[in-house]
Amino acid sequence: MQPEPGEQVFFIGHPSWRSILGFYILGFLAAVAAGAVAGVVTAVAVGHVEVGWVVLAVAAAMVLVLGLGAVRRIQTTYGITNQRLTIERGILSREIHQTRLDRVQNVNARQSLLERILRVGTVDFDTAGSAEFDFSFRGVASPERIVRTVDRAIHERAGAAAHDPLNGPGPPFS
After folding, report:
1. Regarding predicted confidence, which is higher, 97 or 172?
2. What is the C-alpha to C-alpha distance for residues 154 and 80, in angstroms, rounded to an integer?
3. What is the C-alpha to C-alpha distance for residues 104 and 81, in angstroms, rounded to an integer?
4. Given phi > 0 = left and psi -120 to 50 = alpha, else beta, which region is 156?
5. Quick one: which of 11, 13, 29 has its CA closest to 21?
6. DSSP per position, the chain
7. Which residues are within 8 A (CB) of 110 and not within 5 positions of it... i.e. 6 or more apart?
8. pLDDT score, position 2
9. Cα–Cα distance for residue pair 92/160, rounded to 1 Å
10. Sign (positive/negative) of CA torsion 107, 94, 10, 165?
11. Residues 90-110: pLDDT tens digits?
C-alpha cells in the first residue's frame, strides 16, 4: 500500500501465521504421509526402508508447506490510514479493495474459541452504500487492537477536519 501525500499510516500488516495453523498441521500430516510412502516404495524396491529417502521426502514436503504458508500470508496485505482502509491480494496479479474511512459505520471483531486461544480473529467493517464487497480483515493478530486502531484513525480524522478552516464548522471564509 502506497500512502498518498498527507496520508498517515496507522497499520500495514498481513494475516497472522497463527491464522493458518490448520494449514500447517495438515501440511505436517501430508509430510508424514509422504515419508510413509517413501518408506513403502523403498521397502518394495530394495527390500528394506531407505531412511535417507524417507527423511528427504518429509523434508521436501515440509519446505513446500512452509513456503506455501508464507505465500498465503504475504499475498494479503491490510492497511489502515487516516483516510482509508485497504485490502490488497495477490502476488503476480493484484486485487485492491479500499474504502474511505468516513464511509465506515461499524467495526466489529469476532473470534471463535480456537481463534481466542490463538489470539487471532476477523475484523468486519460495515460501510455506507452498497455491500458488493465483504470488507473484512481476516486472520489478524489481536483483532481488538485493529478495532482500536481504526477508532483512533477515525477520531484523528475527525479532529483534523474540525481544525481545517475549509472543512470545519462554520462558514469556510470569514
Report:
1. 97
2. 10
3. 13
4. alpha
5. 29
6. --PPTTPPEEEEE---GGGGHHHHHHHHHHHHHHHHHHHHHHHHHHSS--HHHHHHHHHHHHHHHHHHHHHHHHTEEEEEESSEEEEEE-SSS-EEEEEEGGGEEEEEEE--HHHHHHTEEEEEEEESS--SS--EEEEEESHHHHHHHHHHHHHHHHHHHHH-TTTSSS-S--
7. 121, 122, 124, 143
8. 77
9. 37
10. negative
11. 999 999 999 999 889 899 999
Cell of 10: 496507522
Per the listing, cell 474504502 goes with 99
Give the chain's length: 174
Sheet order of strands, 136-141 included: 104-110, 120-127, 136-141
CA angle, corner 33, sides to 28 and 34, nearest 5? 95
- Would the pTM of this model clear 0.90, i.e. be above it? no
